[in-house]
Amino acid sequence: MNQTPQDFNELEARITEEYATLSRRLQQTARFLLDHPQEVAFATVAKLSEQAGVTPSTLIRFANSFGFKGFSEMQQLFRSRLVDELPNYTERIRAVRSATGETPDSTQLLWEFAEANRDVLDQLPARIDPQNLERALDLLEQAEIVHVLGTRRSFVVASYAAYAFHHIEKRAFLINGLGGMQGEQVKAIGARDALLVVSFSPYAEESRQAADEARQRGIPLVVITDSSLSPLARIADVALIVHEAEVKSFRGLTASLCLTQTLAIALGVRQEKARDRSASDSDIERA
C-alpha cells in the first residue's frame, strides 16, 4: 500500500503515475486539480466541485483514493506549495484574492488570526513530549554557550531565543550570517557548546548545513521544527515539533515563540535551583 503523499510534488507524481487507472470522473478531477493548483489551495469544496464539473463527494473520494482522510488534508499540500513558491506577501495576497474572490477587511483578518493562533496555543502542551522538553533543557543547561540559528521567518524565533537566554544569564550567540560569515560562525561552535536551530518548511539550506555540521562534529543539536519528517528532526538529538496557525496561506509564529519562552524560563529556573544548591553546599562546608 502506497504511503500518503507528504508534499505537493509527491502528490503530483502519484496522480500522474496512477492517472490511467482512475475512473473517468476521477481523471476529470485530477486534470482540474493539477491545472488549477492556486484555486485548489483556498476555495471551498463546493466551489471547486462546481468549477471542476464534479460533485463534492467526488473530490472527497479522490482525496481518499490517495490516502487522505478528507479533502482538506489533501488541500493543505496545495497551500504549502503556494507558500513555498510565493514567499512575497503581496503576491500571496493577490493569489488568495484571485482564488477566493474575497477581500477580507481588517477586523475579519484580526478575528481569523486570533482564533487560529488561540487554537494552536491550546494544542501546544499536548503536542510537546515532556521527555523531549526535559532532554532539550538538559542539553541547553549543560552547554557552555548556546548558539542559535534561524533564517527568514524563523529568524524572529531565533533572535528572541538569544535575547531570552541573555536575560537569564545563559551565554548565547545568535548566528546571523552578518557579512556572509555564517560558515565561520558555525565553525566557532565549541565542543562543549550546543546548537539550537529553528527551521520550518521548506527548511532553509543554511539551517540544514549548520545542523549537518553540528551533527558531524558531535555538537548537541536541539531543533524546533514543524514536522517529525523534517530533515532537521531526523538528525537532531532532540526535536520539538510545533504546529503553527495558518490563515489564507500566512503562517504564524505564536506556538514557536511560546515554546521558546518556555525553554528560556524553564532553563532560568533550573539555573537558579543549581545556584541554590551550590550556596547550600558552601554553607555546609563552612559549618
TrEMBL record:
Membrane spanning residue stretches: none
Pfam families reported in the protein's UniProt record: HTH_6, SIS
Source taxon at top rank: Bacteria
UniProt keyword list: DNA-binding, Transcription, Transcription regulation
Domain named SIS: residues: 136-273
HTH rpiR-type domain: residues covered: 9-85
InterPro entries named in the record: Homeodomain-like_sf, HTH_RpiR, RpiR-like, RpiR-like_SIS, SIS_dom, SIS_dom_sf, WH-like_DNA-bd_sf
SUPFAM superfamilies: Homeodomain-like, SIS domain
Official protein name in the record: MurR/RpiR family transcriptional regulator
Organism encoding this protein: Billgrantia bachuensis
